[in-house]
Design a protein that fits this description.
six-stranded antiparallel β-sheet, Hypothetical protein af1432, 2 domains, rod-shaped, 14 helices
Length: 439
């Protein structure tokens, strides 16, 4: 498992998160800017369309005054002229059609240019519409490589009465579109630059604060681990004058947990519980805990109470509480008959089932004042006799695959080498790395 120091992790996470945030903000604002620009283009084109209609009406009014005719007749006359209906720097009308409420086309004019048949076909595919006075209908579309605006507006006479309707296709100048696109790109880049600049200014400030928080978190983690080791060592020394048993069983359990594919969270529970498994013995009187002879039934009942006492102790710490899985259940038996609750099978937490194998293995292979250590073969024979009874068969079988290596490496060992190796395991599963922290 690859891990990182907490300060390094926060540095990397902060940089990545700020980069992602800057990119997301830039994209969102860029799209927002694009939408505004697009709407602005549409408004400008609509205004051009309206101006084109007004130009036609002004021409028609001039013809009405000169020829004393109605507005529709005048519009026909204007559209019949050779000049284009309306031409602007940003584009021009290539097709204009005048119609009334009876769906009758009163007049129309088309520019003489390639592709005009497609423009006419587009208009013909759209049914006549009749917008109210002062309103219009607009639709932007692409025909081949050109951008068109299809606009429909009402035509009113001098009294304000709608007498006809005009619809037409306005082609936007490619040069004008290029200018608009350059403006959109420029505005988007400006927004992105602003977001990046702000992020760059915020980064050192946030980094300093988060690093300070990281230092506090590291100190808290170190304090918690120190408490774990001190508490576990205290009971081990009181019980056997050495804490090597705690180191060995924790290392056995860790290796077995890895072989069984436990998750990092389960491994942290296993390590805590393994090191504190007998913490409840702090509450057992010395005359029972240190008695060199066999315990009588009453004394054995008192000794068994160390499980509940241990669970009560670790329950008082929010950081140690999950270790109750091992502390409170490591004397349960797979087939039942264990204590304190007489659980069976998978009702016993997997961490407790793992520790049960490790604990008995270490007890059998270790020297005690009242016994000599058994050989590896003798120990494994005893364990397999209780396969499916005391021990989970799957856990014991997995242990059997690594037991010889663990025996050669740890059995009977004491001293700093065990402490150093366990410290490395603790750093692996408790250090603030990519796999152990969630931000």
């Amino acid at each position: 498992m690859k891990t990182y120091p907490l300060r390094t992790f926060i540095h990397r996470v902060l940089l990545v998160r700020l980069g992602i945030a800057a990119a997301v903000i830039a994209i969102v604002v860029g799209l927002f800017t694009y939408g505004i620009q697009h709407s602005q283009i549409q408004r400008e084109v609509v205004d051009l369309g309206r101006r084109g209609v007004l130009t036609l009406l002004e021409k028609a009014l001039f013809v009405m005054e000169r020829q004393q005719t109605d507005v529709v007749t005048a519009l026909r006359d204007v559209l019949g002229q050779d000049d284009p209906p309306a031409v602007y720097r940003a584009g021009r009308f290539v097709y204009v059609q005048i119609y009334d409420r009876a769906f009758t086309v009163l007049a129309e004019k088309a520019a003489d240019q390639p592709g005009i048949d497609r423009v006419k076909a587009f208009v013909a595919d759209h049914p006549f519409s009749f917008p109210e006075t002062g309103q219009d209908e607009v639709l932007m579309t692409q025909i081949k490589d050109a951008t068109f605006v299809f606009i429909t507006v009402p035509i009113a006479d001098r009294t304000g009465k709608t007498v006809a309707f005009a619809r037409g296709m306005f082609v936007v100048s490619p040069q004008e579109l290029a200018v608009i696109r350059r403006a959109m790109v420029r505005n988007t880049l400006i927004v992105v630059a602003i977001v990046i600049a702000v992020s760059a200014l915020l980064y050192p400030v946030i980094l300093r604060l988060t690093r300070r928080l990281a230092d506090y978190s590291t100190q808290l983690l170190d304090s918690n681990l120190e408490s774990l080791l001190v508490l576990g060592s205290a009971i081990a020394k009181r019980d056997s004058d050495t804490d090597s048993h705690n180191y060995r069983v924790t290392l056995y359990s860790t290796r077995l947990g890895e072989a069984l594919g436990l998750s990092p969270a389960e491994m942290r529970i296993l390590i805590k519980g393994s090191f504190l498994h007998d913490v409840g013995k702090l509450g057992i009187p010395d005359n029972i805990l240190l008695k060199p002879a066999r315990l009588d039934p009453h004394e054995f009942t008192v000794m068994r109470s160390h499980v509940e006492k241990g669970a009560d102790i670790v329950q008082r710490s929010s950081w140690l509480r999950d270790g109750t899985e091992v502390v409170g259940y490591h004397h349960e038996k797979y087939a039942g008959g264990g204590y304190p609750r007489g659980l069976k099978g998978e009702d016993i937490p997997i961490t407790a089932r793992i520790f049960a194998v490790s604990d008995v293995f270490d007890a059998l292979t270790s020297h005690r004042p009242y016994k000599k250590p058994l050989t590896f073969e003798e120990t494994m024979d005893i364990l397999y006799q209780d396969r499916g009874k005391h021990f989970d068969p799957a856990v014991l079988d997995a242990f059997g695959k690594v037991a010889r290596e663990l025996y050669d490496r740890y059995a009977g060992h004491e001293g700093d080498d065990l402490r150093e190796e366990l410290a490395a395991e603790v750093m692996t599963y408790f250090s603030a790395g990519m796999e152990t922290l969630r931000y």
